[in-house]
Design goal:
This protein has 161 residues and is mainly α. The protein has 5 helices and no strands. It is flat.
């Protein structure tokens, strides 16, 4: 590979690039899907526990919001699979990759919201509500740094113009 080729990235057609990006996206989605499905499955069982009836109205509302967020995150993160099945062979992979990428970003944001909401509920029940806001805020900031801040910093720092 010449210096010129190294500076300009891969020599691939739009279809080859879409195939590569699709494969990478699906690998990424698999990781997120596993986490959201385990969390969502756990959330579905909470309502059937005896202690659920002892939760305050506020905590039951937080639980319902958390379950709805988990359902939405699950839908968004499974969406790329359905998208691929419905458009496979139609010669629209570059467009499908963009749509699936958008669904994945929405799903990750909803997963962040689900995890934050679940953390609020768990900490409220476990601690009686003391300092929950600060702990959850710190965790959300950590998620934002890991999921968005560092990747965007890395992209900005290491992308050649």
């Amino acid at each position: 590979m010449t210096d010129q080729e190294r500076r300009h990235g891969r020599d691939e057609s739009e279809e080859e690039r879409a195939d590569r990006m699709w494969g990478e996206l699906i690998q990424e989605v698999r990781v997120a899907q596993t986490g959201v499905q385990i969390l969502f499955g756990f959330l579905l069982t909470v309502v059937f526990q005896q202690k659920y009836d002892e939760l305050s109205d506020v905590d039951q509302t937080i639980y319902i919001v958390t379950v709805v967020l988990g359902a939405a995150a699950t839908g968004a993160l499974i969406g790329p699979v359905s998208l691929h099945r419905l458009v496979a062979g139609r010669k629209v992979k570059p467009q499908a990759v963009r749509v699936a990428s958008g669904l994945t970003q929405i799903g990750l944001f909803l997963l962040l919201a689900t995890m934050a909401s679940a953390l609020v509920l768990i900490l409220r029940v476990a601690t009686g509500g003391s300092k929950v806001t600060w702990v959850v805020a710190a965790v959300v900031v950590w998620y934002l740094v890991c999921w968005y801040g560092l990747p965007l910093w890395s992209r900005r720092r290491h992308t050649t113009r």
